C-alpha cells in the first residue's frame, strides 16, 4: 500500500482518484509546522500541497520513502526543487488546470471593457440613470490581436472566432501551418499594435516580454485600442498605458494583474475612468481549483504505480555512471540552446542536435532536454521550462526534435552541435568542453571561434576590413561599455566575418543600433547567457 499525505486544504473531489485507489491510503493533515511535517513524513510515499506548506530540504531529507511531491497549482516556489532532485524525488505541478478559467476571465474582461460594465454598474447603484455615457462597441467584426498563442491564447482565439472576430496571433513558435490550422492570421507585434481593435496578452514574463508594449508601441498604436492583460504584470508598461489612455490612444483597458501585487493605494489604474481591474482572479474558479488537484492526483498515482507521467518540474534520476559523463555538459547544453535561440529569425520548427565523440556512446536524452530548455526558455521564461517538461512543451508547439550521433568529433574529444531551423533561417552553434578551460562555443554558423558561453555578449557580423575592430571598440568605449574579451572569426581574408564581444554590462539598444550604422558592419545582436 502507498501512503499519501495531503498537508494543505484540497477538495475531496480533487483527490477522489487517490481515495478510490485500492493500493493507496490518503491522510489529510493540514496546517502542519515544518517540525511536525519532518516528524511524520518518513512514513509517506507521496505529499500533496498547495501554497501553504513549505517543502524544505529538511522535509525532503526526512522523507525516506518519499517518491513524489505534488503541487495542486502552477507555482512551486514553496518547494525546494534542488533538494528534491538530489534525493530523486519527483516534483509535479498542474500547468493546464487553469487554462479554461483564465481564458473565460479574459473574455469577461474583454466584454466588460467593451461595454463599460463596471463603470455603468457603479453609476446605476449610485442612483444615476446614465445611458449616454456608456455607449460601447461590438466584438463582432473587430480585429483581436493575441500576443502569445500557447494553451490560453489558443482557447481565447477559438472563442473570439465564435463572436465573429478576426484573430491576428503572435507567438515566437507559431508557424504559418499552425496558424492556418487555428484559422488565424500569423502576425508580428508591430502588425497587431498598428491594426488591432482589441489586444490580449498571454505570454510569460521574461526579459524579452517585459514592457513589450510600452511607449514606442503606444506611439504607433491604432487609436481606440482596447487592451486586456490576464497573464502577468509587467508585460505592458503600466505608466505608458495610463499616458496612452489619457491621450485617447487607448479607449479602455482591463487588467487582472499588476507589476507589483497588491498594487499601491495610489496606483493610477485604481481610479482611472478607462481602466477596470480585478485582483488576480484568472484561476479563481471552483472548477479550476478542483481541476489542478485532479491533474496532480492522477500524476501522483501514475508515479506511485511506475507508469508514464507528465508535468514534472525537476530532473528525474540518472544512473551514476551516465551522470558522471553527462554532468559537465548540462550547463553547456542549455547555454548552446539559449545562444542559438537568440540568433534565429522566425518561428522555430526544428531543433537538430548532433552528439559526437564519447557522448555518442551514452544516453544523451538528459542533455537534449537541457538544450530544448535553453531554446524555449528564451521565449517562455526559465520558470516555465525545465529539463523534464521541455520536450513536452516543444511537442505542444509543434517543434520537431531530431537527435543524431557521430562516433568521431572533429578536432575535439566531444562536441555538441545545435541547429535551429525556421521558415526563414537556419542557425547553428557548436560547443565542447576544453580541458582546463571548461565549456566553450567553438563554432557559430560557419565561423570558428573560442567563446566562453556566459555573461553579456555582442555578436557582430561584418566585412573583414581594416579598422572594423577599432571602430567597434571606440564606439562601445564612448558609450561606457567595457569589452572583457573578443573573438573574431572569418572564412576568407576580406570576406564575411563575425566578432563576439564579452562585455561587462548590458549594452543599451541605442548603442546596438549605432553599431549597425558603422561602415562595413552588417548586423549586431546582444546575447544574454
UniProtKB/TrEMBL annotation:
Keyword Lipid metabolism: no
InterPro entries documented for this protein: ACT-like_dom_sf, ACT_dom, ASB_dom_sf, D-2-hydroxyacid_DH, D-isomer_2_OHA_DH_cat_dom, D-isomer_DH_CS, D-isomer_DH_CS1, D-isomer_DH_NAD-bd
Keyword terms: Amino-acid biosynthesis, NAD, Oxidoreductase, Serine biosynthesis
Reaction(s) this enzyme catalyzes, per UniProt: (R)-2-hydroxyglutarate + NAD(+) = 2-oxoglutarate + NADH + H(+); (2R)-3-phosphoglycerate + NAD(+) = 3-phosphooxypyruvate + NADH + H(+)
PROSITE patterns according to UniProt: ACT, D_2_HYDROXYACID_DH_1, D_2_HYDROXYACID_DH_3
Highest taxon above the source species: Bacteria
Entry EC no(s): 1.1.1.95
Protein name: D-3-phosphoglycerate dehydrogenase
Species annotation: Paenibacillus lycopersici
